[in-house]
Amino acid sequence: xxxxxxxxxxxxxxxxxxxxxxxxxxxxxxxxxxxxxxxxxxxxxxxxxxxxxxxxxxxxxxxxxxxxxxxxxxxxxxxxxxxxxxxxxxxxxxxxxxxxxxxxxxxxxxxxxxxxxxxxxxxxxxxxxxxxxxxxxxxxxxxxxxxxxxxxxxxxxxxxxxxxxxxxxxxxxxxxxxxxxxxxxxxxxxxxxxxxxxxxxxxxxxxxx
Length: 209
Fold this sequence. Notes:
Layout: H1 3-23, E1 27-29, E2 41-44, H2 50-56, E3 67-72, H3 73-76, H4 80-90, E4 93-95, H5 107-115, E5 119-122, H6 140-147, E6 153-159, H7 161-164, E7 178-181, H8 191-206
Parallel strand pairs: 1-7, 2-5, 2-6, 3-4, 3-5
Antiparallel strand pairs: 6-7
C-alpha cells in the first residue's frame, strides 16, 4: 500500500466515516444495490460537498482507490494545496467544465478509467444545487454510458446533504441525511433518451417516502 493509499484509508476509517455515521447520522436505503465489483458508474444528485463523502463512505476501505468521483478541475485543482488534498483523500477524477477542446475532452480518459477497472461517481446536474429540486441533467454521463454500455449504472439520491452542509459553508451540522440507492442497470437508446432515463431514475428515488 502506498503512502497516499494509507493516508486515504486512515482519513476515512478514523475521520470521515465516523463523522458521517455518528455526527451526521447518515442512513442508507438500498445498500444491497451497491456493486461488489468494479467498474460501475454511480449517478447522483448534487447539493453539497458531503455528497461525495457520503457515497465514498459506503464502500469497504480496500476499494477506495478504485472509486473516482468526477470533479471540476477549476474548483478542486484551483491551487496546489486543494489539489493535493482532493487527490489524496478523495481520489478525484478532475475534468474541465469550460473551454473544452479535443485535448481537454474528459470522455476518453473516463472511458479508459472504466476499462482499467476504476468506478466513477458522476453528478450530471453539473454543479451543486439547492437540494430542493433536481436540476435537468447534462448529457455528458449519457455520452459515457453510450460508449461503455457494458458498465452497470447505479442511480442514487442524496437527501438533506445541502441542509447539513449548504453551498458556501464549511462546517456541517447534524441533520437527517440519507442515501437512497437504486438497482444497478444499463441504459440504452439515444443520448437524449439515456439522459432522460438517468434523470428519471434519480428523481424516482427522490420521491420515495
